[in-house]
Description:
The structure is a homotetramer.
Chain A: H1 3-30, H2 37-44, H3 48-54, H4 58-69, H5 86-101, H6 104-111, H7 113-118, H8 120-147, H9 156-177, H10 188-201
Helix pairs in contact in A: 1-2, 1-4, 1-6, 2-3, 5-10, 8-9
Chain D binds a DNA duplex through residues 4, 7-8, 11-12, 15, 36-38, 46-50, 52-53, 56-58.
Amino acid sequence: MADRETRKKQIGDKRRQQILDAALDLFAKQGYAESTMPEIARSAGLATGTIYIYYPSKRELFIAVIESLMVVPILNVFKNETGENFQKTLKKALNERLSILQSVLLTKLLSLIGEIQRDAELRAIFMEKLIRPFLARMEELYRARVEAGEFRPMEPAVTVRLVGGMMLGMNFLKSIEGENSPLNRLPQGQIVDEMVNFVLFGLNQPGAKPRAGK
Amino acid sequence: MADRETRKKQIGDKRRQQILDAALDLFAKQGYAESTMPEIARSAGLATGTIYIYYPSKRELFIAVIESLMVVPILNVFKNETGENFQKTLKKALNERLSILQSVLLTKLLSLIGEIQRDAELRAIFMEKLIRPFLARMEELYRARVEAGEFRPMEPAVTVRLVGGMMLGMNFLKSIEGENSPLNRLPQGQIVDEMVNFVLFGLNQPGAKPRAGK
Amino acid sequence: MADRETRKKQIGDKRRQQILDAALDLFAKQGYAESTMPEIARSAGLATGTIYIYYPSKRELFIAVIESLMVVPILNVFKNETGENFQKTLKKALNERLSILQSVLLTKLLSLIGEIQRDAELRAIFMEKLIRPFLARMEELYRARVEAGEFRPMEPAVTVRLVGGMMLGMNFLKSIEGENSPLNRLPQGQIVDEMVNFVLFGLNQPGAKPRAGK
Amino acid sequence: MADRETRKKQIGDKRRQQILDAALDLFAKQGYAESTMPEIARSAGLATGTIYIYYPSKRELFIAVIESLMVVPILNVFKNETGENFQKTLKKALNERLSILQSVLLTKLLSLIGEIQRDAELRAIFMEKLIRPFLARMEELYRARVEAGEFRPMEPAVTVRLVGGMMLGMNFLKSIEGENSPLNRLPQGQIVDEMVNFVLFGLNQPGAKPRAGK
DNA sequence: GATGAATGAGAATTCATTCAT
DNA sequence: TATGAATGAATTCTCATTCAT
């Protein structure tokens, strides 16, 4: 039977994954250039040469690693939200999925942003597979809300980059602050509440009278 | 006289700057590991050995480069704003200083974020010299506005990371999108308007009736 | 019965030959070091490991390849020639057998001469199995002709190396010139005629009066 | 003054030569693939990395080595010979220059013939710089002798390859026989005499009556 | 101070050989 | 027997750093 074949393929897939996992860890922790093939191999529990059976070069391995990050569940942050009380729904959704934004994967991705940005091929992959779909999905949702009369009409290109950037940027700050970030000392519920309120209503104190001119 | 001394020192400073400039350029364009000392030297118009007169090692040079970025005028984004019509003042300020956020320096800094993040010493410098002052300055301004009754009281730690992250994140998106970013096709005035309105009032359409719960 | 045994042996011989053929091809085309075992295996339609069942190492395989070349029909170039009109006989013989000298095998052998020369063991095999018998055979024939009064008596050691070297050297030149060799544009009959005439009578124009000494 | 520059250049040339010498020795003794860069460096009294300052890769070094062999004084074997007693002149010339054919350089060249033959670029260099000029020079001399009525008219393309091949081939045989070659036990004068006589008059015993046909 | 040739440790990659299946 | 994935020693090449000039 093709049992033998199947088994072989499975082992191959397993090896590939083994290597990918080890490589992602090391690349994220030490950067691309500072991670050596023997190191990756050791970390994957394999011999150096074995990696080359599955990935023809360090660069190809890196590309595979980056591509594996592109399926990051970031896109799921915006699943279709059509609850009735929109504010509540949003909070619920964010509460459920904020962790996605703070996932290990996203942190690893951020740590490799430099390498991605500097390499044309990687940048293209990153744009096509992650950034564009992410922004497109946001824009779609935003437009729907505007049509529903719930959101103010703004330039969508700006809006999605403001909100999307906010999510990425906040996560980046949290990630670089590490353990010490005050965000770690606040209950997630509160953070989500503040986020939602900020996104919906801004910083403005509604009753505030515009300051008088001189 | 100490004229000789002075002259010497000036030449030294000039050399140091020459090297720093060349190194920053290359590090930002190619990353730390991919930039070689001979390359940096050539780009600075010097011989390889000369660099070692001013910086004891490639790593020290990198640290100096990163430190040179820490004086980035980012902090000036929030100079004291106490105009009377607060919204107008903010717009004026942002219009003047948005370019700071889109400065070449910030782009270079972003491209080296990975290297900074992975190195404890650099991360500490980055936090102390840039992130913390930046967030502290924002927090101070925010608190003042809250006391003035202009801003809603929120948890300041969250607020500043939302707004600060938004600014960084939007800039990052713009930078990674490159030429193709739609933001490049909008007049800066409009972008600033949208930003300010978003920060002040959020996405919410004021008149919208909250959707009825089931 | 030993039928099973016989069958096994036949398969073994076939495998051995398969491998030998593939290896000879590759070694000749790319050299020893540049030919890899997986490559040889693929070219033989076998798995890498299978080669090691029949040859214990790459080196042993190479030796076997070289030995297989030692049975090259070069020796037959000088089968017993005792026709009556000696010149005619020689031409006929050469016409029949010149192709031997231009055989693919000899070309392959020449391309591996370097490897053979540099390895003491291979050099010994080459000398014992090919060069010495070849020269010995020539010498024997030459001596017979001298005794028959047909050839001038010369130092046989020199004579055979002159004539043998001529045949090898001409073939080498033709082989390295490849397609472009003018020899390819002459009819073989003419070449043989010229060769025989040269070997028998040299370059000298019979009637030429020796130039007067000073 | 440009003294400094000159000095530098001289050192560079010296290094280049040092490396070339060591590389030629090793390549000839062990072959291209079997000679390692550290080995070559050690043999040249330098560090491995130093070689790469002067030759960008092992292959380039090899090409330089082969090119250095192309100036081999082989071409001088046929300097213009126009003495009056042609036979004497030839003997004298060969006596003086036979050593050229047996030079170390030619031996080294022969040992690398395989590598040259298998590499298109090297083969082209070899043909252009050595084989073609060598054959052309011979042809020119041969034609002159024919016109002078001293040599029989034959097809020059064949003649030069016969005589040239003879010289190469005899040398090759001597080289592969090594110490044991009987040629080493004969006085060079005798060898030259035999060569010249063979080339001029062939093997034929002048008085021999052609054997009767059947 | 300035130079850049020299160094050699360290990295990526290859491939003969082994061995579990 | 036959297979081909796994191994790791060996090879080429790079580059931070040193130091004689």
